[in-house]
Amino acid sequence: MKATVRWVKDVMFLGESGSGHTVVMDGPEASGGHNLGLRPMEMLLIGTGGCSSFDVVSILRKARQDITDCEVDMQATRADAVPAVFESIHMHFKVSGRNLSEKQVERAVALSADKYCSASIMLSSAGVKISHTFEIIES
Prior knowledge:
Elements: E1 3-9, E2 12-17, E3 22-25, H1 40-62, E4 66-78, E5 86-98, H2 102-116, H3 118-125, E6 129-138
Parallel strand pairs: 5-6
Antiparallel strand pairs: 1-2, 2-3, 4-5
Helix pairs in contact: 1-2
């Protein structure tokens, strides 16, 4: 996996993935930015949610669950000192579908957390407390 991050101006950077996709990172005006992009730590949080959501959807599809939507709301706390690392992340999955098995959804969330999501497992091994809940929405 490769990526490039290039300084644009002030505290704005352009990140490009090895697959050719780009994202703007910028800081708030208080730190000399223009608030035109995500903060790097926001990207890390979103990437973790994306990684875990990808797993949950894939696992449920393989289990032949009739899933129609998956959303994860995330709440993170960070240390008050520098470096302001994540201390905890809570992930709440809202899984929609028809006749979804609660056992299968619970299993998919647990497998992502314990076995498949590289991002959350890496953060956990660095001491971040990661918790998960879920709800099923009939559609």
